[in-house]
Amino acid sequence: MIVERAFSYEEGFRRLVERGRRARNHFTEANLRLVVSMARKYPAGGLSMDAIQEGNLGLMHAVEKFDHRQGTRFSTYAVWWIRQAMSRYSASQRSLVRLPERMVSEKNRTGRVREQLWQDLGREPTRKEVAEASGMEVERLDLIDLATRPAVQLDMPRGEDNKKTLADITPDPSQGTEEEVCAAEISDLLLGALATLPEREQRVLILRFGLLDDREWTLAEVGKELGVSRERVRQIEMNALKRLRHPSLGLSR
Protein backbone atom coordinates (compact mmCIF):
# COMPACT_ATOMS: atom_id res chain seq x y z
CA MET A 1 0.00 0.00 0.00
CA ILE A 2 2.80 2.44 0.91
CA VAL A 3 4.66 1.63 -2.30
CA GLU A 4 1.49 2.08 -4.38
CA ARG A 5 0.76 5.42 -2.71
CA ALA A 6 4.32 6.63 -3.29
CA PHE A 7 4.08 5.59 -6.94
CA SER A 8 0.84 7.56 -7.24
CA TYR A 9 2.51 10.64 -5.73
CA GLU A 10 5.43 10.35 -8.15
CA GLU A 11 3.23 9.90 -11.21
CA GLY A 12 1.09 12.87 -10.24
CA PHE A 13 4.11 15.10 -9.77
CA ARG A 14 5.71 13.82 -12.98
CA ARG A 15 2.56 14.65 -14.96
CA LEU A 16 2.54 18.15 -13.48
CA VAL A 17 6.20 18.64 -14.39
CA GLU A 18 5.57 17.48 -17.95
CA ARG A 19 2.59 19.80 -18.30
CA GLY A 20 4.69 22.68 -17.04
CA ARG A 21 7.57 21.81 -19.37
CA ARG A 22 5.30 21.57 -22.41
CA ALA A 23 3.54 24.80 -21.51
CA ARG A 24 6.85 26.62 -21.00
CA ASN A 25 8.23 25.44 -24.35
CA HIS A 26 4.98 26.23 -26.17
CA PHE A 27 4.88 29.61 -24.48
CA THR A 28 8.40 30.48 -25.65
CA GLU A 29 8.04 29.11 -29.19
CA ALA A 30 4.69 30.86 -29.68
CA ASN A 31 6.34 34.22 -29.07
CA LEU A 32 9.59 33.83 -31.03
CA ARG A 33 8.04 35.75 -33.92
CA LEU A 34 7.66 38.71 -31.55
CA VAL A 35 11.43 38.72 -31.03
CA VAL A 36 12.07 38.58 -34.78
CA SER A 37 9.60 41.40 -35.39
CA MET A 38 11.33 43.63 -32.85
CA ALA A 39 14.78 42.74 -34.19
CA ARG A 40 13.73 43.88 -37.68
CA LYS A 41 12.97 47.32 -36.25
CA TYR A 42 16.25 47.42 -34.35
CA PRO A 43 18.30 50.63 -34.90
CA ALA A 44 21.31 48.65 -36.10
CA GLY A 45 19.35 47.93 -39.29
CA GLY A 46 18.48 44.62 -40.90
CA LEU A 47 17.70 41.35 -39.15
CA SER A 48 20.53 41.21 -36.61
CA MET A 49 21.07 37.69 -35.26
CA ASP A 50 22.86 39.17 -32.26
CA ALA A 51 19.78 41.26 -31.49
CA ILE A 52 17.57 38.17 -31.92
CA GLN A 53 19.71 36.13 -29.52
CA GLU A 54 19.51 38.92 -26.94
CA GLY A 55 15.78 39.16 -27.50
CA ASN A 56 15.47 35.41 -26.92
CA LEU A 57 17.11 35.84 -23.52
CA GLY A 58 14.64 38.59 -22.70
CA LEU A 59 11.75 36.39 -23.86
CA MET A 60 12.87 33.46 -21.69
CA HIS A 61 13.18 35.81 -18.71
CA ALA A 62 9.65 37.08 -19.39
CA VAL A 63 8.34 33.49 -19.43
CA GLU A 64 9.87 32.89 -16.00
CA LYS A 65 8.64 36.19 -14.49
CA PHE A 66 5.16 36.51 -16.02
CA ASP A 67 2.30 36.76 -13.50
CA HIS A 68 -1.10 36.29 -15.15
CA ARG A 69 -2.82 37.68 -12.06
CA GLN A 70 -1.72 41.19 -13.01
CA GLY A 71 -4.23 41.18 -15.88
CA THR A 72 -1.65 41.85 -18.61
CA ARG A 73 -1.34 39.81 -21.80
CA PHE A 74 1.93 37.93 -22.02
CA SER A 75 2.89 39.43 -25.39
CA THR A 76 2.49 42.93 -23.93
CA TYR A 77 4.56 42.01 -20.89
CA ALA A 78 7.26 40.26 -22.94
CA VAL A 79 7.86 43.28 -25.19
CA TRP A 80 9.36 45.17 -22.25
CA TRP A 81 11.82 42.40 -21.38
CA ILE A 82 12.78 41.80 -25.01
CA ARG A 83 13.39 45.52 -25.61
CA GLN A 84 15.41 45.78 -22.39
CA ALA A 85 17.59 42.83 -23.40
CA MET A 86 18.23 44.31 -26.84
CA SER A 87 19.04 47.72 -25.34
CA ARG A 88 21.50 46.12 -22.94
CA TYR A 89 23.17 44.43 -25.89
CA SER A 90 23.47 47.74 -27.71
CA ALA A 91 25.04 49.42 -24.69
CA SER A 92 27.47 46.60 -24.02
CA GLN A 93 29.33 47.10 -27.36
CA ARG A 94 30.35 43.46 -27.26
CA SER A 95 29.77 41.20 -30.27
CA LEU A 96 30.44 37.68 -28.98
CA VAL A 97 29.76 37.13 -25.28
CA ARG A 98 27.26 39.31 -23.45
CA LEU A 99 27.30 37.73 -20.02
CA PRO A 100 28.75 39.25 -16.83
CA GLU A 101 32.55 39.11 -16.97
CA ARG A 102 32.71 37.11 -13.75
CA MET A 103 30.37 34.47 -15.17
CA VAL A 104 32.32 34.29 -18.42
CA SER A 105 35.52 33.84 -16.42
CA GLU A 106 33.92 31.12 -14.29
CA LYS A 107 32.56 29.37 -17.37
CA ASN A 108 36.03 29.31 -18.95
CA ARG A 109 37.57 28.08 -15.70
CA THR A 110 35.05 25.28 -15.17
CA GLY A 111 35.54 24.26 -18.80
CA ARG A 112 39.29 23.86 -18.24
CA VAL A 113 38.64 22.00 -14.98
CA ARG A 114 36.26 19.58 -16.74
CA GLU A 115 38.85 18.82 -19.41
CA GLN A 116 41.59 18.25 -16.84
CA LEU A 117 39.40 16.02 -14.67
CA TRP A 118 38.36 14.02 -17.73
CA GLN A 119 42.03 13.36 -18.51
CA ASP A 120 42.90 12.57 -14.88
CA LEU A 121 39.90 10.31 -14.20
CA GLY A 122 39.50 8.73 -17.62
CA ARG A 123 35.76 9.44 -17.52
CA GLU A 124 33.32 12.33 -17.47
CA PRO A 125 33.54 14.08 -14.08
CA THR A 126 30.43 14.59 -11.97
CA ARG A 127 29.00 18.03 -11.26
CA LYS A 128 30.18 17.73 -7.68
CA GLU A 129 33.75 16.93 -8.76
CA VAL A 130 33.84 19.87 -11.17
CA ALA A 131 32.40 22.24 -8.57
CA GLU A 132 34.86 21.18 -5.87
CA ALA A 133 37.84 21.40 -8.22
CA SER A 134 36.63 24.85 -9.33
CA GLY A 135 36.18 26.08 -5.77
CA MET A 136 32.43 26.71 -5.99
CA GLU A 137 29.11 25.25 -4.88
CA VAL A 138 27.26 22.82 -7.17
CA GLU A 139 24.35 25.28 -7.34
CA ARG A 140 26.68 27.96 -8.75
CA LEU A 141 27.97 25.54 -11.37
CA ASP A 142 24.39 24.70 -12.37
CA LEU A 143 23.60 28.41 -12.71
CA ILE A 144 26.65 29.00 -14.92
CA ASP A 145 25.79 26.04 -17.17
CA LEU A 146 22.17 27.20 -17.40
CA ALA A 147 23.09 30.80 -18.26
CA THR A 148 25.63 29.84 -20.92
CA ARG A 149 23.58 27.29 -22.86
CA PRO A 150 23.54 27.95 -26.63
CA ALA A 151 20.94 30.44 -27.81
CA VAL A 152 18.17 29.40 -30.19
CA GLN A 153 19.33 29.68 -33.80
CA LEU A 154 16.51 31.22 -35.81
CA ASP A 155 18.38 31.51 -39.11
CA MET A 156 19.13 27.80 -39.59
CA PRO A 157 17.11 26.12 -42.41
CA ARG A 158 14.38 23.82 -41.13
CA GLY A 159 11.47 21.83 -42.50
CA GLU A 160 11.21 19.26 -45.26
CA ASP A 161 12.32 21.62 -48.03
CA ASN A 162 15.20 22.91 -45.87
CA LYS A 163 14.35 26.44 -47.01
CA LYS A 164 12.23 27.82 -44.20
CA THR A 165 13.82 29.06 -40.99
CA LEU A 166 12.42 28.93 -37.47
CA ALA A 167 11.57 32.61 -37.84
CA ASP A 168 9.30 31.72 -40.77
CA ILE A 169 7.40 28.89 -39.10
CA THR A 170 6.91 30.18 -35.53
CA PRO A 171 3.26 30.86 -34.59
CA ASP A 172 1.71 34.29 -34.16
CA PRO A 173 2.00 35.42 -30.49
CA SER A 174 -1.36 37.20 -30.53
CA GLN A 175 -3.18 34.01 -29.45
CA GLY A 176 -3.31 31.75 -26.44
CA THR A 177 -4.65 33.68 -23.43
CA GLU A 178 -6.00 30.46 -21.86
CA GLU A 179 -2.66 28.72 -22.42
CA GLU A 180 -0.89 31.67 -20.80
CA VAL A 181 -2.98 31.40 -17.65
CA CYS A 182 -2.61 27.59 -17.54
CA ALA A 183 1.17 27.73 -17.96
CA ALA A 184 1.56 30.45 -15.37
CA GLU A 185 -0.58 28.59 -12.84
CA ILE A 186 1.43 25.38 -13.31
CA SER A 187 4.68 27.32 -12.91
CA ASP A 188 3.36 28.98 -9.76
CA LEU A 189 2.38 25.60 -8.32
CA LEU A 190 5.72 23.95 -9.03
CA LEU A 191 7.93 26.78 -7.81
CA GLY A 192 5.79 27.47 -4.78
CA ALA A 193 5.66 23.80 -3.81
CA LEU A 194 9.39 23.18 -4.25
CA ALA A 195 10.17 26.25 -2.15
CA THR A 196 8.46 24.60 0.85
CA LEU A 197 10.84 21.62 0.80
CA PRO A 198 14.21 21.26 2.56
CA GLU A 199 17.17 21.99 0.28
CA ARG A 200 18.17 18.33 -0.15
CA GLU A 201 14.64 17.28 -1.09
CA GLN A 202 14.45 20.15 -3.58
CA ARG A 203 17.67 19.03 -5.23
CA VAL A 204 16.57 15.39 -5.44
CA LEU A 205 13.32 16.31 -7.19
CA ILE A 206 15.05 18.81 -9.49
CA LEU A 207 17.48 16.12 -10.67
CA ARG A 208 15.08 13.17 -10.70
CA PHE A 209 12.43 15.03 -12.74
CA GLY A 210 14.84 16.89 -15.04
CA LEU A 211 13.78 20.37 -13.93
CA LEU A 212 17.28 21.79 -14.55
CA ASP A 213 18.27 20.37 -17.93
CA ASP A 214 15.27 18.23 -19.01
CA ARG A 215 17.26 15.04 -18.27
CA GLU A 216 15.82 12.78 -15.59
CA TRP A 217 18.62 11.40 -13.42
CA THR A 218 18.52 7.82 -12.15
CA LEU A 219 18.52 7.00 -8.44
CA ALA A 220 22.12 5.84 -8.78
CA GLU A 221 23.21 9.06 -10.50
CA VAL A 222 21.57 11.25 -7.87
CA GLY A 223 23.05 9.11 -5.11
CA LYS A 224 26.52 9.53 -6.57
CA GLU A 225 25.98 13.27 -6.91
CA LEU A 226 24.87 13.67 -3.29
CA GLY A 227 27.15 11.04 -1.81
CA VAL A 228 24.36 8.80 -0.51
CA SER A 229 23.01 5.38 -1.39
CA ARG A 230 20.46 4.66 -4.09
CA GLU A 231 17.96 3.59 -1.43
CA ARG A 232 18.51 6.82 0.52
CA VAL A 233 17.72 8.86 -2.61
CA ARG A 234 14.51 6.86 -3.08
CA GLN A 235 13.52 7.59 0.54
CA ILE A 236 14.24 11.32 0.16
CA GLU A 237 12.23 11.45 -3.06
CA MET A 238 9.29 9.60 -1.50
CA ASN A 239 9.29 11.90 1.55
CA ALA A 240 9.42 14.98 -0.69
CA LEU A 241 6.53 13.76 -2.83
CA LYS A 242 4.50 13.03 0.30
CA ARG A 243 5.07 16.60 1.50
CA LEU A 244 3.88 17.90 -1.87
CA ARG A 245 0.59 16.05 -1.43
CA HIS A 246 -0.43 18.43 1.35
CA PRO A 247 -3.76 20.03 0.32
CA SER A 248 -2.44 23.54 0.99
CA LEU A 249 0.06 23.21 -1.88
CA GLY A 250 -2.59 22.55 -4.51
CA LEU A 251 -0.88 19.50 -6.01
CA SER A 252 -3.27 16.86 -4.70
CA ARG A 253 -5.87 17.28 -7.41
- Chain-averaged pLDDT: 70
Structural class: mainly alpha
Quickly name the level 1 CATH class of the domain at 1-17 and 176-253: Mainly Alpha
**Number of strand segments:** 2
The portion of residues assigned to helices is 55-70%
Break the fold down into its secondary structure elements and pairings:
Elements: H1 2-29, H2 32-40, H3 49-65, H4 74-92, H5 101-121, H6 127-134, H7 138-147, E1 157-158, E2 164-165, H8 166-169, H9 177-195, H10 199-208, H11 219-226, H12 230-243
Antiparallel strand pairs: 1-2
Helix pairs in contact: 1-9, 2-3, 2-4, 3-4, 5-6, 6-7, 10-12, 11-12
Please characterize this protein's 3D structure.
With 253 residues, the protein is mainly alpha-helical. The chain has a domain at 1-17 and 176-253: Arc Repressor Mutant, subunit A. The chain contains 12 helices and 2 strands; from the N terminus they run H-H-H-H-H-H-H-E-E-H-H-H-H-H. It has a two-stranded antiparallel ribbon with strand order 1-2. The longest helix has 28 residues, at 2-29. The two termini are 20 Å apart. Mean pLDDT is 70; it is low at 93-98, 150-181 and 249-253. It comes from Geodia barretti. Residues 157-166 have a biased composition (Basic and acidic residues). Keywords: DNA-binding, Sigma factor, Transcription, Transcription regulation. It holds the Pfam family Sigma70_r2.
